[in-house]
Structure formats: C-alpha cells, structure tokens
Write a structure and sequence with these properties.
By secondary structure, this protein is α+β, with helices and mostly antiparallel strands. It has a domain of about 60 residues: Alpha-Beta Plaits, CATH 3.30.70. The protein is built from five helices and five strands; from the N terminus they run βααβαββααβ. α3 runs antiparallel to α5. The protein is globular.
Length: about 110
C-alpha cells in the first residue's frame, strides 16, 4: 500500500474553504461542475444540481461545527478527520477539492 505525505498548507482564499463548506452547499461554475460530477457517485450524501443556470454541490449531511459563514466553530478541537484532511491524493473527494482550487499536494513516501 502506498503511503503519502501531504505537502503545502491550507490556503482557503484559493479554494473558498471548499472542504469545510461541503457540509452545506457549494456554488460552482459549469466547468467545475462537469469535472466534479463523475466523482460524485462515490458520495451518496452529495447531490449535484443545476438550477436556473447555477451549479450546486449539496451535501445532504451537515457538520454540527460549521458556522453560517462556512468556517469551523471548533477549529482548535476539530475531529482528526478534519485535521488530517486530505490524507490521500487518490480519493474522489480530493479530486473534487483540487478542481475547486485546493493547494495541497502529495509526495510518495519511500520506505
């Protein structure tokens, strides 16, 4: 099994805090919407919708710590899944995050 090391830092101004906002609704342009659609089948909690020429990615489950401004209200004590995200470049969710502008990248760890 390949091990990965996450490189870089979170720059929410570049991605619009996509991974945090996924607990709610994300509005995107048509190009990002079309790229993301093929990965959505891996996430039954997500629904992609087009309404009046606007494209939405809706997460049908909600994080109880996500504020109305899309920011974590429990950032210092957030769950390890959030602290460690993203942990693997080969997940469909990370591919969607890259489409949205995530600045993280990965290096393979040689053993």
């Amino acid at each position: 099994m390949t091990k990965w090391k996450r490189v870089g830092k979170c720059e929410p101004e570049k991605c619009g805090s996509f991974c945090c906002k996924c607990a709610n609704v994300v509005v995107m342009d048509e190009a990002k919407f079309e790229k993301s659609r093929k990965y959505l089948m891996n996430f039954p909690c997500f629904k992609a919708m087009k309404v009046n020429d606007k494209y939405f990615l809706v997460n049908l489950s909600n994080c109880r710590y996500l504020g109305l401004d899309g920011k974590c209200m429990n950032y210092e004590d957030r769950p390890s899944d959030c602290k460690d995200f993203p942990a693997n470049p080969n997940t469909a969710f990370f591919r969607i995050c890259k489409i949205m502008g995530c600045t993280y990248s990965f290096e393979e760890v040689k053993e």
